[in-house]
Specification:
Length: 701
């Protein structure tokens, strides 16, 4: 209890809320003594620093209760003066700790009282039962001694107790009891044992008392630490509270400044509002006037609307009916005019073409067809500038190209096939020349252009989409079959290639082992000992073409994965005999797939492929020289400059119909080669070969 009261006093000193500390300290010291006395009081006289009776104990307890009431009043006064909430919480926690300590103290006191064995009003627990047993034995011994004394008194040897309040005199002389010496000795031994046990109980009591004092000191130290931490927290709370108060003051000052500004703004807005009210009154007058005018206009509009509706119901149907009939008539006339113009246009186109072909036949010009292949999947997905489409088709028979330098040029040819043209469309324009072979004319059709531009596709084509060669032979066999009742046709086929300026017979059994030369004969140039195969059907020709394709020289280059490294010439000789007149006509059809022209550096050719490219370019250059010489009207035509030009001499001279396909690529990467090919074709188109004549021998000659 003392520690608790001291803690309360320390708290009151720390908070410094009241001015009555000195009298409370006096009461506290007195309360401490009262606590000690009251805690040990049993209604008997106890000597703890002086004598105290039951009345004194009651008085001290009363004083202590008064002191407690005073402390409660002080606490209530402190609370009424506005104690901090956090401090109250700490005080409550502190009280809980004190109560725990009081409980521990009570337990220790109980243990001490048990150890005392009834001394000071305590008893029970621990060694108390053993002590009580000893006390019973002592009582029994006392009773035995009293009996012995009574017995001894009869003998005149008893002891009388001193009167109450008499001073202690000298110890009485012991008179031996009238008992057996053995029993007395046994009792003395038992008494000695009890005394020893009593000493042991006192030692335990002293030990427990020491532990109690240690616990009290430890409890007091813990309470002091709690109070110290509470004081520290109070200081922190004061600092933080001060900081919050300062911030609140600053914020309040800022709010006051804002309020002042808002007040000024309100004043300005009030003035503005007054001005707007005054102007609004004027607007109200104007608005009322406008409302009147609006009402007038609305009524006029309604009247006009009703008049228009009435007029539309009567006049519009009439106007629409008459207008519709006029439009229908005009439209009918216009469509009829379009149909007439279309028919006339088609007639004019056919007539123009007929006349043009007639002029071409009379002049003997080389016909030139231009064909542009579609872009490949790789070119479409590339996204590079070099894969940009650079070819356009501005009009019928025209092609335009732009190169990488930005140069653009237009060319005009006899026929131009764009990227979407089909094999059927191409052959339809070629067919008239092919059929003239059956009449005894010499016809030459060749494809010229850069590698990878579609020359072989145009001339040969895949099995599923045949080109000019197969379609031409099919038509020849078909027409021969139709006229066989009057005319007997004998068709012979040969296939050769010009490879590195050497002629190779692609139908011979020993391909490449024999050398061939070009000779002049009565019916034009020819190759002696060349394999000539008589054919009766298209299937036989297709088998021969397959054999020739196996023997042909091809190689992979950067420009084309399966580039033709030679010039392929398929020749068809037709000897037609009229069964009635005996007249014989001789016609020749040369179908030529020239090797691709390409730049050596761009193709990536090396070694043998480089030599092949050089020979190809040499023969094509010689062909260009022949075309240039024919175009300029030179008396000397350099046919002997290459094997190719020697073989084409009949086709590039008079008495022959010649058609050239110039094949081009649509992408910018190949624009320079495209320019060269188109310029070459333009020069070839200007060559006049003269009118072609039939090779007919009258019967009997």
């Amino acid at each position: 209890m003392k520690e608790k009261d001291d803690l309360i006093m320390d708290m009151l000193k720390t908070f410094k809320r009241l001015q009555v500390l000195e009298p409370i300290q006096a009461f506290a010291s007195r309360n401490s003594r009262i606590g000690n006395w009251v805690g040990l009081a049993t209604g008997e006289t106890i000597e703890i620093g002086g004598n105290a009776t039951d009345e004194e104990v009651q008085e001290l307890r009363k004083e202590r209760n008064d002191l407690r009431n005073m402390v409660k009043d002080l606490k209530s006064a402190m609370d009424s003066k506005g104690g901090d909430g956090a401090i109250k919480m700490k005080l409550k926690e502190f009280k809980k700790d004190v109560k725990k300590l009081e409980k521990e103290k009570s337990k220790l006191l109980a243990a001490l009282q048990q150890a005392q064995g009834g001394e000071g009003g305590g008893g029970g627990g621990g060694d108390g039962a053993e002590t009580a047993k000893l006390m019973l034995q002592v009582e029994k011994l006392k009773k035995k001694l009293e009996k012995a004394e009574k017995k001894g008194g009869k003998d005149g040897r008893g002891l009388s107790p001193p009167p109450p309040g008499a001073p202690p005199g000298p110890p009485p002389t012991a008179v031996p009891p009238a008992v057996d010496d053995g029993k007395v000795k046994a009792l003395e031994e038992e008494n000695a044992k009890l005394a020893k046990k009593l000493e042991e109980s006192k030692a335990k009591y002293e030990k427990a008392k020491g532990k109690l004092e240690e616990v009290g000191k430890a409890s007091l130290k813990g309470q002091e630490e709690i109070l110290a931490s509470m004081a520290s927290e109070m200081e922190k709370l004061e600092v933080s509270s001060k900081k919050e108060i300062d911030e609140a003051k600053k914020e309040a000052a800022g709010k006051e400044e804002e309020i002042k500004k808002l007040a000024e703004t309100v004043k300005k807005l009030t003035k503005t509002n007054e001005a707007l009210k005054s102007s609004n009154s004027g607007l109200g007058v104007a608005l009322s006037q406008l409302a009147k005018k609006s009402g007038t206009l609305t009524s006029e509009f309604k009247l006009l609307k009703s008049q228009v509706h009435a007029s539309m119901k009567t006049d519009v149907p009439k106007i629409a009916k008459s207008t519709a009939s006029q439009i229908a008539a005009a439209s009918s006339n216009f469509m009829k005019s379009i149909e007439d113009l279309k028919v006339n246009y088609e007639k004019e186109v056919k007539e123009r073409k007929r006349l043009f072909n007639l002029v071409q036949e009379l002049r003997g010009n080389i016909r030139v067809f231009a064909r542009c292949r579609p872009p490949s999947k790789k070119e479409l997905s590339s996204g590079d500038e070099s894969s940009t489409i650079c070819v356009e088709f501005p009009a019928d028979g025209e092609v335009a190209m732009k190169n990488e330098k930005g140069k653009e040029k237009n060319w005009e040819f006899d026929q131009v096939f764009n990227t979407s043209s089909t094999q059927e469309q191409v052959y339809k324009e070629v067919s008239p020349l092919v059929t003239s072979v059956l009449d005894g004319f010499n016809v030459c059709i060749f494809a010229y252009g850069q590698t990878g531009t579609g020359k072989t596709f145009t001339m040969m084509g895949p099995e599923s989409n045949r080109g000019v060669n197969t379609r031409a032979l099919y038509e020849l066999f078909d027409m021969s079959q139709k006229r066989r009742s009057t005319i007997e046709d004998k068709i012979t086929v040969s296939v050769l290639e010009v490879y590195n300026e050497q002629i190779k017979d692609l139908l011979a059994e020993d391909v490449g082992e024999r050398k061939y030369t070009v000779r002049e004969g009565p019916h034009g140039n020819y190759v002696p000992d060349l394999t000539m195969v008589n054919v009766d059907s298209l299937d036989e020709v297709i088998e021969l073409l397959a054999l020739a394709d196996l023997n042909r020289s091809t190689a992979k280059t950067n420009m084309n994965e399966h580039s033709s490294r030679s010039h392929l010439i398929l020749s068809c000789y037709i000897v037609s005999t009229n069964k009635h007149s005996g007249e014989v006509s001789r016609g020749k059809l040369h179908l030529i797939d020239l090797a691709g022209s390409e730049r050596v550096g761009k193709s990536g050719a090396k070694g043998l492929a480089l030599k092949e490219a050089q020979n190809i370019n040499k023969s094509l250059s010689a062909l260009g020289d022949v075309i240039a010489a024919r175009g300029s009207g030179s008396s000397h035509i350099p046919f002997r400059n290459s094997t190719l030009t020697q073989l084409l001499q009949d086709s590039l001279s008079a008495d022959s119909k010649t058609l050239m396909f110039v094949c081009i690529s649509p992408v910018m990467y190949n624009s320079e080669e495209g320019f060269c090919s188109l310029n070459f074709a333009e020069r070839a188109r200007k060559v006049e070969l003269g009118k072609a004549t039939k090779n007919v021998v009258k019967a009997g000659k």
